[in-house]
Description:
The protein is of the alpha/beta class. The protein has helices spanning 72-85, 97-109, 123-131, 143-153, 168-174, 176-184, 201-215, 235-242, 268-277, 287-299, 310-314, 318-330, and strands spanning 48-50, 57-60, 89-93, 112-118, 135-139, 159-161, 192-196, 224-230, 281-285, 337-340. Strand 7, helix 7 (201-215) and strand 8 (224-230) form a beta-alpha-beta unit. Helix 2 (97-109) packs parallel to helix 3. The mean pLDDT is 93. Pyridoxal-5'-phosphate (PLP) binds next to helix 2 and helix 7.
Amino acid sequence: MLDVAEFGARPAALETLAGRGNDLWRYAEALPLPARPAVSLGEGLTPLIPAPGLEHGWLKLDFVSPTLSFKDRGAVMLAALARSLGVRRAIADSSGNAGTALAGYLARAGVACEVFVPADTSEGKLAQMRAHGATVRLVEHTRADAARSAMHAAGEDGTFYASHVFHPYFLHGTKTYGYEVWEQLGGRAPAALVLPAGNGTLVLGCALAFSELQAAGAIARRPAIIGVQARACAPLVEAFTRGDAVPAPVVPGPTVAEGIAIADPPRGAQILAAVRATGGVMVSVEEPDVLQARDELARAGLFVEPTAAVCWAALRDPQVADLTEATGAQSSDSGDIVVPLCGAGLKVPAAH
Ligand SMILES: *Cc1c(COP(=O)(O)O)cnc(C)c1O
């Protein structure tokens, strides 16, 4: 798997961040692109608010991003790079929000965008991709078939493979989620980060962020990462429970959590290693609990898509409660637990 390291990422000290722009480019010293590119839509620095009814709990509202999901953090990196390389067109594959984010940012970059999606992708997400001017290619069968078609198309000359899964710049975008949590908690690491895990771009981004912050001496201890999957498609949870280093592909059942239904995640081994290195766990949630969590959040004023409710649902898992209590008690930084709300509700039919 390709990654970028050693480009000289050095997190700026907390005191120097005050007064900088209200977007993720305030962490420019830690990013592989030197400064805010022309294609920026003001992504990042999403609100961190107290979680309703959860002591030391925080919700990070990434669904208020420009294209309405956290994928904007990585999409801006790929679109800026594609534009600077002068390519004619870019190819992406997605079960939804990565496609909408790339469609939006590539439109801004003036690069033609084609997105390969599984045929059952939510209408709202398809409509958004088309509105941004992307060519949408519906692929029958599975998410993995969409990925294979995209990879094939990306082999053509003059074409940029804007893969949120494979492109290493994407993770340097998603890592800004971690930098923001650190800054918004006043320069501290939380005890635990609850994160959705499909292809693991937010998990791996956060692992990167807190490793960099620790290496820079900005935090003493990294947060435990709790990765969450839907029970119907949980290759990482199964491998974690078995103690395996590499996940085995699963045959997915139907799930309302379409954004994390990845049967054979290419970065699976990396995700498992990252979670284990922080002393975290992988847990799965049942369908009715996801929908109940979605409804509960909506009643608290926060309308997110079902996929974005899995982390809230996971807080009921006794393993999560035990772990957050244990890490909170021994943490030198804080006992906080941070839960993201990754995608907006209006893209997915409410009947879901
Ligand atoms: C993409 C996405 C996820 C999962 O992210 P991965 O990188 O696949 O782990 C979770 N929730 C929402 C709303 C998403 O768009």
